[in-house]
Amino acid sequence: MANGVVPPSLLRRGRHALANPRLWLRRVVLWVGAVAVGVAAIAFAISAEFANGVHLRMVAISPLLPFVVGPAGLALVVWITRRFFTGTQGSGIPQTIAALSVNDDKTRNQLLSPRVAMGKFLLTVLALFSGASVGREGPTVQIGASIMHSLGRLTRFSRVEAERGLILAGGAAGVAAAFNTPLAGVVFAIEEMSRSFESRTSGTVLTAVIVAGIVSLWWLGDYTYFGRTSAVLEGSTAWIPVLMCGVIGGFAGGAFSQLLIVCSRGIPGRLGTYAKKRPVLFAAYCGFALALIGAISGGTTYGTGYHEARSILEGTGELSGAYGALKMLATLVSYVSGIPGGVFAPSLAIGAGLGHNLAELAPYAPAGAVIVLGMVAYFAGVVQAPVTAFVIVIEMTDNHDMIVPLMAASLLAAGCSRIVCHRPLYKALADQFLNRSRDGT
């Protein structure tokens, strides 16, 4: 462009891009898909909160009701899952990562489809109604990826866009809309789902995240799931809570991830044999165990953990000092039962409980700051995605003054986690999905 003159070839390409109906069709599909992901994520959030609220009201009516609803509900969820919605078990993030890795359409369509999206939505809501300790963010990733992948099949996208870009965009848009954290959606796509970032997919991901985020903001407004805290760390002893939370949270999160990986391969011993032979009845026993844990915790371990984490962070409620450990146990039981549901929100709630415990060991530091450090450290230890962890926590708590401590605790926790869990949780689970699909099981 010498002397400010645009080359004729560039002008021709620009006019071609504006007039090409195929390019406009691709843009419309992407925009419509992103709006659909945002609407689905919001409907999922509202339905999940309603189901969780109904269960809490049942507990208030009678603490014995969960001992009936829990076993019956989880047994029903597992029966429906195995009978009608195979492939919806667990979080949904490993399935999405697996879909990014396969080349054949048959396997990809088994992992991402309208049937899978509908089953994930309905069964996760039913699991929350039954008192399971699961999150909806992982399922939202699979739902978002399924929506975008299904719409992408309606037009001829390029190979990269069809097989990776749209799936990445759908998953990222799901995170952005589910948490109301657009930046975290982009980071999650880069760090966790793809482990790389190609320039050919960046525009697709960013567009989907922006559109889905706008839909979420328009519908629900600018809110933070875990409330707001202005607590900061100051003084020469400020780094002690960072080191404490990073190490303890990292090892605890890594140990939990390793447990999930081991259990996903099959529970060892006679219990595992029984779970394979009688999966529905095993789920009923898990439901009874969840009701027992819930009774011990005073009803605080049911559901996603959003309200409990908010009360810990804002200091508006009293929770048992054992909340973090009990929530971890409830989340593990929920996972091994074979129901759909994620570990994002429960992990953040567990981290809040851990931070609340560690705050007592550092009385010179603001409790809110230590709690936020506990959240980011434990979550980073579970997923081993440190950038995603601190970005999500920063956006969800609206505390930008803690960026450097949160970043340090997150990186330290991810490093400690790798000592006890050598492979990232979602990557290991995705590989297991791929192995099962190759074996035809």
Kindly describe this structure.
With 441 residues, this protein is mostly helical. The protein folds into two domains: 19-220, Clc chloride channel, CATH 1.10.3080.10; 239-439, Orthogonal Bundle (Clc chloride channel), CATH 1.10.3080. Helices cover 75% and strands 0% of the residues. The protein contains 20 helices and no strands. The protein has helices at 8-19, 21-61, 66-84, 93-101, 105-111, 114-129, 137-152, 159-179, 182-194, 199-220, 239-265, 269-277, 279-296, 306-314, 323-336, 344-359, 367-383, 386-397, 403-420, 425-439. Helix 11 packs parallel to helix 15 and helix 17 runs antiparallel to helix 18 (386-397). The longest helix has 41 residues, at 21-61. It is globular, with a radius of gyration of 22 Å. The relative contact order is 0.14.
Briefly say what this structure is.
The protein contains 20 helices and no strands. The model is unreliable at 9-17 and 199-203 (pLDDT under 50).
- Series of H and E elements: HHHHHHHHHHHHHHHHHHHH
* Alpha-carbon Rg, integer: 22 Å
Low-confidence stretches are 9-17, 199-203
Report the mean per-residue pLDDT as an integer.
78
CATH homologous superfamily label of the largest domain: Clc chloride channel
Helix content: over 70%
- What is the β-strand count? 0
Largest sheet: none
Shape: globular
In the CATH classification, which architecture of the largest domain applies?
Orthogonal Bundle
Number of domains: 2
- How much β-strand is present in the residues? under 5%
CATH topology of the largest domain: Clc chloride channel
